[in-house]
Design goal:
Elements: H1 6-35, H2 38-47, H3 49-77, H4 80-110
Helix pairs in contact: 1-2, 1-3, 2-3, 3-4
Length: about 110
């Protein structure tokens, strides 16, 4: 991170935290309702628009919030090249986890 980017980092963390808080009730409601149907209930929930959208919103917020938290740990405890490599690796892992989640949920939802 460059000098002066801490404010944006803090705001982004607030936005992702707010997204998680707002989407959590919808995600949990659908998830608990899906548990009664076991595997088929969970699959039906993710293939419905409500389930897919609530899962996408919650997982997006959760993954990016976690990425931002790991960024803070890396910035606090690492120096030099290891810090740069770790920030890049953290960004890559966060993006890959998010992309896989989105791909799986959209594939289930759209039935492709």
């Amino acid at each position: 991170m460059t000098k002066g980017s801490g404010t944006f980092h803090h705001r982004l963390k607030g936005w992702t935290g707010t997204l998680m808080i707002l989407s959590l009730p919808f995600f949990l409601f659908g998830f608990v309702c899906a548990l009664s149907g076991r595997v088929s209930g969970f699959t039906e929930w993710l293939t419905s628009p409500f389930g897919a959208i609530s899962a996408l919103l919650f997982l997006t917020g959760m993954i990016w919030y976690s990425k931002l938290e790991f960024d803070e740990v890396i910035l606090d405890y690492l120096d030099g090249g290891m810090k740069s490599f770790s920030l890049l690796a953290n960004r890559l892992v966060g993006f890959v986890a998010w992309a896989i989640s989105v791909f799986v949920i959209l594939t289930m939802w759209l039935g492709a």
